Structures are given as C-alpha cells and as structure tokens.
Amino acid sequence: VEEFDAMTPDMVLLDIMLPVMDGWAVCAHIREKGATPIIMLTAKSDVDDRITGLEMGADDYVAKPVQPRVLLARIRALLRRTDKTPEDEVAQRIEFDDLVIDNGGRSVTLNGELVDFTSAEYDLLWLLASNAGRILSREDIFERLRGIEYDGQDRSIDVRISRIRPKIGDDPENPKRIKTVRSKGYLFVKETGGM
Asked: Is the peptide bond before 175 cis (omega within 30 degrees of 0)?
C-alpha cells in the first residue's frame, strides 16, 4: 500500500494471498484512491472469489496457474484500454437525455452529478454507448475490451452490467438503457422514452 501511494503505478497486478494485508484490502485501498487498473492474480479460482474481486473494483481476474503469454496479453489489453495517447485525449462526448459520457475526461454525469466508475466499468459503458442501437454479443465485448476470445464461462461482463445499470439510473429489474437481449448480448438503447 505504501509503495502504491508513493509510486502511483499505471497498473497493479495483485495477489489475494499476501502476508500482512490481504489482496481484498489492498484492492479496496487502491479503489479509494482512484481508478488505477487492477488485475487480481490468484490461486483462488472459485466463481464467488472472481465475483468478489470484480465487485471490489478489480478490472480483471486471472486464476493461477496462468500461461505467461496469456497474462501478458491481458496486461497489454488492460493498459491499451486505459492508456491516454494524444489522439484519445480529443474530447468525445455522448449524451442521452440526463446521461453524459465524456471519453476525453473518462467521466460520466447523471443529472449533472459526477458518477464514480471503475476503469473496467467505464470502458464497458463507453463501448456499449458508442454502439448505441446495436446489439453487442459477449464475444464482441470480450474481444474488444480484453483482446482475447470469450471462453463461454466468464460472467465478468454480466457482473459489470449489473453494477453499471444503477449508476446510470437504470432499473436493474426493468432496464430501459442497457437491455439484455436473450441469446444475443447487450443493447444500449438510444431513446429511453423520457427517462
């Protein structure tokens, strides 16, 4: 934690099993400080552990043992998504009624209030919103956000969608903005009918 605070790294590769303070606590500390990308790397491969990691704000969760090339690809994909190169800094802004997504500043406002998003949540929201009116499959989302194929098992996209919906004023029980299209994927609706 002290090294993180002193260094402000571009990304954190974090194990859960640490000697003094566990990875969950370190993840929570990092999230309090901002949106630094976090990959949890751990021997705990249980689905509940994965969901906990993502809900605590991790951007990705990799179970050990992992092939070095796979880990490197995931690190590169995460850094690519969060890297602000000069062409990325050109302000891109999408507005849907009371929801404003500004890709230049990577910020989201709802009814004029700034809404807090993890890096992974923001990337997913931007991908869906910038493709409003078009259904994106889990395969599409996985490949565009992570640069790897969807394995058919990973539920991280679903977890992120469930966390994004209330943040953008969408009713989780009856969503109007981000619709789940059965057997197809997710659809960001352009017009929400006076939401």
From this structure: no
